[in-house]
Design a protein that fits this description.
Length: about 260
């Protein structure tokens, strides 16, 4: 078994062939920093060929899953120019691809904020469980930005019609609505029920041969078609243009200043 990396933004607990990964930046509702992206990618690489690890369970500390990208990272990238925005954005897309293709069964446990990149992570999980009061959404356009790396995976998960409505309105929706549109598989009404449902799913996963599961997942993904690296590269360029443009600057400043952007009525 490979040694797991030491992480600053993640809590890792390996138990009975299941690696529990907790996003651990509760002060920012587990916003996805560059460091967290790098650490998640390092964990995925460390376990990729380890068939003793049968499932990855991703959750969040402090009552939230993930509130999206870290605005502070975007502020830091501003000083480095458009290429930094592109690279920052594309790194998250690479993470989504790696979670999508992890040979283990990936289960997300969704509570509190499941926004932007957090919603993207939910879309690349094999099984998603949600609290009925979890708050989902794609807020990027309300900030003058684009859901650049997330959009292809959202479309693949819930279809173009729903993805267009959610991305172009930045509407929030709860766990029950997420289940209706096929984003999550199970919705529970309290933490104990979520834990019991997770145990039930893991019991089923552990009845399946890990090698067979890995190849079956590969087959299913190949059958459905995948968001291409070329598209994600282009989306990162578009994101860089958006975040350095007038709307992106106004939207991110309004977020930091806790006010409505100029275009909001």
């Amino acid at each position: 078994m490979n040694t797991l990396p030491v992480c600053q933004t993640l809590l890792l607990e390996l138990h009975n062939g299941v690696l529990h990964i907790t996003l651990n930046r509760p002060e920012s509702r587990n916003a996805m920093s560059l460091l967290m992206v790098a650490e998640l990618r390092a964990v995925l690489l460390a376990v990729r060929d380890d068939r003793e690890i049968r499932a990855l369970v991703i959750g969040g500390a402090g009552g939230h899953f993930c509130a999206g990208g870290d605005i502070k990272d975007m502020a830091n990238a501003h000083a480095q120019g458009p290429l930094a925005y592109r690279d920052l954005n594309r790194a998250f897309g690479a993470l989504l691809q790696e979670v999508q293709h992890a040979p283990q069964v990936v289960i997300t446990v969704l509570q509190g904020a499941v926004l932007g990149g957090g919603l993207g992570l939910a879309c690349v999980s094999d099984v998603a469980l949600a609290d009925h009061q979890a708050q989902f959404g794609l807020p990027e356009t309300s900030l003058g930005l684009l859901p650049a790396q997330i959009a292809p995976f959202v479309v693949q998960r819930i279809g173009l019609t729903q993805a267009r409505r959610l991305a172009l309105t930045a509407a929030r929706f709860d766990g029950t609505q997420a289940r209706r549109m096929g984003l999550v598989h199970f919705v529970e009404h309290d933490a104990q029920a979520l834990a019991e449902r997770l145990d039930e799913i893991l019991a089923h996963v552990l009845c399946c041969a890990p090698g067979a599961n890995a190849v079956t997942k590969k087959l299913l993904l190949a059958s459905a078609g995948q968001p291409s690296g070329g598209l994600l590269d282009e989306a990162a360029e578009w994101f860089s243009e958006a975040v350095t443009g007038a709307e992106g600057i106004e939207g991110t400043q309004a977020f930091v200043q806790k006010r409505k952007p100029g275009w909001a009525l």
